[in-house]
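for the writeup, i need someone to sanity check this before i put it in the appendix. the sequnce is what the collaborator sent (i think, or maybe the updated version? ugh). structure was predicted straight from it, no edits. if anything looks off just tell me and ill rerun, i have time this weekend
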Amino acid sequence: MKVLAVIDMQNDFIDGALGTPEAAAIVPAVARRIEEFRSAGWDIVFTRDTHGEDYLSTMEGRKLPVPHCIRGTHGWEISSALDTTGCTIIDKPTFGSYDLAEYIAADPKTDEVVLVGLCTDICVISNAMLIKARIPETKITVDAECCAGVTPESHNNALEAMKCCHIDVIGQG
């Protein structure tokens, strides 16, 4: 059984406060991956970066003083180009989510987790490492064509770091 973890495919990371052309470019590929998993009957879980109005007073807000993904705003919403019907959505207050790792670990039939989404160099790598730490014998794959980083260079650096930690990277040019 496979699980697709769709990381932070939210408006603010695609074309909003922290959007990039690279992030916008992966949306169709992520939509195809979601449909592939849905057609196979596999589990799909989305994460949603979630901050409050006090974001700028948090540790993250002091280091990245750009309000984004504020609960209830358009920027916080998952892109309307992605179908979340029947999927689990996990709100997370920071880069990695213990709840995501626990959700995946709860099903003993899960033998592979595929991660896609944003940003490769922050939230994708953080979640991949938490999942790897929680269920080290489960295959973890990152689809590079369905991810984008803050910059193309940091995206590639994160992919290389994950490879060093025995996370498979596919779709890399």
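The chain has one domain: 2-170. Helices lie at 11-14, 21-40, 59-63, 98-105, 120-134, 152-164.
thx in advance!!
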